[in-house]
Amino acid sequence: MEVVFPPLTTSNNSLPIFINSKPTARQRGSIIISEIQEIRVCTNRSCRRQGSMQTLETVTALAPPTVAVKSCGCLSRCGNGPNLVALPAGTLVGHCGTRARAAEVLVALCGGAWDSDAADKSLEALALRNKAEIELNNNNNFSQAELFLSQAIELRPIGGIHITYKDRSIARLALGNHSGALEDAAQALALNPLYPEAYICQGDAFLAMSHFDSAQKSYLTALQIDPSIRRSKSFKARIANLEKLTAVPD
């Protein structure tokens, strides 16, 4: 993959450092890195003071499902913070302390080109998704949430679309659009086949349609992917409801 950040010359050649906000045309394509598998954001004291928690939040929300995002300790470049590193190439990016910068860096690392328009659209989609979550969780305004989420999907952000489809599945199910909820859950799983929350949404849609065997299969798949959800009160309630609906009368 092409890296679009110009390197800062250092005596340590094992980790190229990229700190400029935008490369020149001559510098584009000067470094080739392998497929990004993981991004680690420094949340040590110095980088945290410079805004790395906001960077971590933004990168986590917008990363494609194939890219894991984690916090990490000091990357030994405190003067260039906040810093993040893309693995397995070990590409270190500095001065990543705003949402806009984080989005541009993510687009460049995962998309293979510097595209400020894609970064702007990704941030706009994230803002719409956040608004939709407020409507879903606080206001029970499911039609407005569906609208926000549909607008976010149309923007085609760099990542996080599987979460947006999952959220719209919830909104559509609440609106009684069972087939639409099922389609959105399927879209989320097409993007991220190991997304337990999407399997739960799929199970909820099947349950609402009285497809009990399919609902059970979806719930059990979610449990296999993430056994910790067994302790979730909402998951326990789903299983109890399914067992109640499928119980054989004495």
Automatic annotation (TrEMBL):
One of its GO terms (molecular function) is transferase activity. TPR repeats lie at residues 196-229. Gene3D superfamilies: Glutaredoxin, Tetratricopeptide repeat domain. The keyword Transferase applies. It comes from the Eukaryota. InterPro entries: Thioredoxin-like_sf, TPR-like_helical_dom_sf, TPR_rpt. Keywords: TPR repeat, Transferase. PANTHER family: TETRATRICOPEPTIDE REPEAT (TPR)-CONTAINING PROTEIN. This is Putative thioredoxin-like, acetyltransferase A, auxiliary subunit. It comes from Rosa chinensis.
